[in-house]
Write a structure and sequence with these properties.
With 457 residues, the chain is α/β, with parallel strands linked by helices. Helix content is 50%, strand content 18%.
Amino acid sequence: MNKQIKVLIVIGLLIVGGLLGVAEQAKAQTSEVLVLRIEGPVTPAMVSYFERGIETAESQDNTAVLIILDTPGGNLDPTLDIVQLLRAASVPVIVYISPRGAQAASAGSIITMAAHVAAMSPETVIGAASPVGEGGAELGETISRKLKEDLKAQVRSLTERRGAAATAIAEGMIEDAHALHAEEALNVGLIDVVAEDVPDLLRQIDGMEITVNNQTTTLETADATIREFPMNLLEQTLHALANPLFISILLVLGVQAILIELSNPGGWVAGFIGVVALALAFYGLGTINANWLGLVLIGTAFVLFALEVKAPTHGALALTGTATMLAGILLLFNSPGSPEFARISIPSAIAVSLSTAVFFLLIVTFAIRAQKAPPQTGLEGLIGKKGVVRSPLQSANNKPPYTGTVLVWGELWEAESNDPLDKGELIIVTGAEGFKLQVTSSTGQAMTSEEAGDFVA
């Protein structure tokens, strides 16, 4: 009996151990890393994307959030918002500068330092985080020192756990715009890992102890599955608005649409398109370091185009307007000190300026011609048209006016003439009064095929 009980106990322990093993294996198989990918300048849309990703990972109890980053930098406000998001996250956040050739420059380097785990691909760069002013202008000595000291205090708190060497390098990125490649950053302890790809990264950091919200946790990423978490449509659209070429196109499109609406009031489509385009353009300008003085030159260019149409100068004003627009676009985006991501290429600026000039001149010219053209509808639109007498134009006392009916453009009209006209005789409309046409004989004058077709009807 005792022997049977011992056997049952052993079997029970084996079953429990097996069940625990299966549970651990299932847990390992269901661990998941949420992957966010971002390329381009730091924008408010990036803040929204990261916030949504971290909240999703927290609600689904994911193992970690992996941000694959490639950014030339951006404005300070969204950068600090992202730092707060990462440090407040209750799920481990890994920032991985990738692929080869990518960078986490300027603001991107601060975001990388804020992560619980920092990693880089080979041949990537981090650093050059010195602040610049609006439109890329050099900051005054006082404000520059204030901003630098503020940012240096920020990176000191983010790199304190990494040691004195890493902190000194981080401060040098703010003070002197220092930059490091991946191996240099690893050697000074600024990052944790140099990895070839995501699977290599997850293998290397497996078992690493990190502190998340003041609690020590051990990463279990070696067998974790990877789930992509892309930007939604709105985030993609708003993030794309940091492109200077896109902003330029929206600006000129918006201005032209508004002018078209003003020149032809009563509709709403052109005005609506103009307002939306300008709203998006100004949003985009707010996400990069643009020199707003450029807008003055762009507005002046449109005035010169309008003057060229109103008072033709054989192209002199149009040429001046094109050059002014080019100067405005370059001033808006390419002022001295502007970061590379906020600059527009000269060929792109020339293309936008020329196409805008041609399109604007054509549209305005056609609009003015349409306003000056004789009316094509109503009684006034019939003046000058040819027709045929359907009932003789005559009078009781054989004196003018002689009245009858005529067929003009497929319709019968009452008509009067200073001379009697017989049925079938060709006429031309010379005027209109009320619903009666004034006509005269047009015998001997050629008819168009369209007019002739009306007479046959």
